[in-house]
Design brief:
It is a single chain. By secondary structure, the protein is an alpha+beta fold. It has two domains: about 100 residues; about 180 residues, no CATH class. Helix content is about 50%, strand content about 10%. A hairpin with a 4-residue loop joins strand 6 and strand 7. It is globular and about 75 Å long.
């Protein structure tokens, strides 16, 4: 069973690092700084506190690199200048600024607390609660659950509600249409004025995006052939498009990513490639009922 490993900073270690650095600041500026400097105890307190602070962010994370660079960057000129009394406040500030972000960069590794997959809630809940699921959905399946505003204000011509649920790498957006839960149709609007329904519900949309990321190209190719293919031809076409997509985007294991994301989202096994394309056609048939307008009232074209 796949599991995600996170290095999680210890609250006790965090508190100890902060206390050590702050104590160094107060003591170093006290009435006997020369004694402390002579004995070397002040330098020891500083070194231990700074080292602990650097260890707080995850290994190989940007936070640790930034903290290390900041501390080294201020220590070197201070050592060269001999102004040791400036060490504590400067280093304390630098460490506290960067340690604030500790733990926000989950990095797989052999050391740390194992965070199990979320096995409750809807697929959207799982995407929001499971960083690994969100990472896989974003790449290689081009559905980023961290929704931000669309490239322009949009609304449905019917006046029904739109709920943003995801983005694609090109600036397009995914919306649930109307009122209700995740059984609502999912509309995809790209950043260039095209929109259409890509799933009769959230699960259908996710199955299509995960199972056939090149579904649009597949439908276009089948239409150009001008005849109804059998299941074997459809599977071969989708496999060929998957291979081309993997090569173009540097994806090492698309099938493995697909299987892991399906499990993490708690989805049923994917239907056949032919069925996925049928689902895409069924969704697209709903598009005329969900016309998307921009702020000027201009309708988006079909996907």
């Amino acid at each position: 069973m796949p599991a995600e490993v996170h290095t999680v900073p210890s609250p006790v270690r965090s508190a100890s690092a902060f206390a050590g650095l702050l104590l160094a600041a107060v003591t170093g500026l006290g009435p006997q700084p020369l004694v402390l400097l002579t004995t070397g105890s002040f330098v020891t307190v500083y070194a231990v506190g700074a080292a602990a602070a650097i260890r707080l962010p995850p290994r190989r994370g940007k936070g640790r690199t930034a903290a290390s660079a900041a501390i080294v960057g201020v220590v070197f000129p201070l050592v060269m200048s001999g102004r040791y009394l400036l060490w504590p406040p400067v280093v304390t500030g630098a460490a506290l600024l960067y340690v604030r972000g500790a733990g926000r960069e989950p990095v797989p590794g052999p050391v740390g607390r194992v965070r199990p997959m979320n096995r409750t809630g809807s697929p959207l809940d799982r995407l929001r609660d499971d960083p690994r699921a969100a990472e896989l959905a974003t790449y290689p399946f081009d559905f980023d659950p961290r929704f931000s505003e669309h490239v322009e204000p949009v609304r449905l011509a019917s006046g029904a509600a739109l709920e943003g649920i995801g983005k694609d790498a090109g600036g397009g957006s995914y919306f649930l249409c109307g009122d209700g839960g995740e059984e609502r149709p999912v509309l995809h609007a790209d950043s260039e004025g095209s929109a259409g329904i890509v799933g009769t519900g959230l699960i259908a949309a996710l199955q299509l995006l995960i199972g056939a990321p090149c579904w649009g190209e597949a439908l276009g190719e089948l239409e150009r052939r001008g005849r109804e293919p059998d299941d074997r031809e459809t599977e071969a076409l989708l496999a060929s498009l998957d291979a081309e997509y993997s090569e173009d985007c540097g994806i090492e294991d698309l099938a493995g990513n697909r299987a892991e994301l399906i499990e993490r989202l708690g989805l049923a096994p994917l239907p056949s490639g032919a069925r996925l394309l049928d689902m895409a056609r069924e969704a697209m048939a709903l598009s005329p009922s969900y016309v998307l307008l921009n702020e000027e009232g201009t309708a988006y074209g079909p996907l």
